[in-house]
Amino acid sequence: MREIPADTTREILRNLIAACEAKTGLLITKEGTSIAEAGDTSYLSTTAMAALVAGMFSATREVARMVGERQFSILLQQGESRHIHISLTTDTTMLVVIFEDIQRIGKVRHEARKVAERLADSLSSSRDSALVRSELSVTDFRQGAVRLINDIFRPD
Amino acid sequence: MPHISFHNKEITFKIVYFGPGWSGKTTNLVRIHARVEDDLRGDLVMLDTDQERTLFFDFLPMELGRIAGYAVRLNLYTVPGQIYYEASRRLILDGADGVVFVADSQPSRLDANLVSFSLLRENLESYGMDWSTFPIVLQYNKRDVEAPIAVGTLERDLGLNGITVIEAVAVEGRGVMETIAAVSCRIIEGFDL
Known about the structure:
The structure holds two protein chains of two kinds. Chain A is of the alpha+beta class. Chain A has helices spanning about 10-20, 45-65, 105-120, 125-135, 140-150, and strands at about 25-30, 35-40, 75-80, 85-90, 95-100. In chain A, β4 and β5 form a beta hairpin. The termini of chain A are far apart. The relative contact order of chain A is 0.16. Chain B is α/β, with parallel strands linked by helices. Chain B has helices at about 25-35, 85-95, 110-125, 155-160, 175-190; strands spanning about 5, 10-20, 45-50, 55-65, 70-80, 100-105, 135-140, 165. In chain B, strands 1, 2, 3, 4, 5, 6, 7 and 8 form an eight-stranded mixed sheet that branches.
């Protein structure tokens, strides 16, 4: 896999949003975690959004299997003034694009397909773990996390 | 396996509340949501039916604080307990770092507890996880019912040796914080980079 700087994922998303004049872009994992965000995110909880979209996509995958497909690679939710385009970028990540002009659906679809491979290349959890390891000691993390847990989840 | 992001400076763990229908999984999340300070948690998202039964899942995101600049996040999920929502349960368990099994202490629900735990075991195995070493906390909920199932019954019937057990009355908040603390600590013990 070629080396790509860690901040490239966000940059790819930003360019995608600009190219299709979308409002928001999110890259999320199939477990429901937001990895990268671009555009305006002030109007939504990206954490909850990621969890819900991941659930929705998982449910759709089961539906696909029922009709003999491995999965549906694209989901489109059309609203009155905002629409959501969701596409698989890798086996474990999804690209979510929120846009307002339904006439741009073709452009959104085209741009999403175009960046899928670059987004996939920009992600490497093993690289992230190695980078985090250079900054964070596992022992310190465990001790700090247990302190937080015991403090926040103190019984009544 | 937690989600680790160097770029976003965050480490996110997924905890799933599992158990038979009506055992109190959603109640656990509601009590945690009510008890934890606002700035440490997001909104509680509930996807339920008209009868207030969980349809797909409930979701509560939390950020416990920062360690060496990294945000420690917990995403709490419940699964629907009814037997016919098997597909939803399997999907939600995907990527879980730890599980709270919420058992119903009513004697009439003994079989439902056993069946539900068997499903949990099967689902974890289907994701290639060794359920015997996976972080699971067993919560005996509804300890205020008449003649509750004796603690030790499920462990014996299911062959669970050394599992962390907590007694609770979730509707009153009893045992709820102890449970989330216990499963979180189990997960953290096994954390590595």
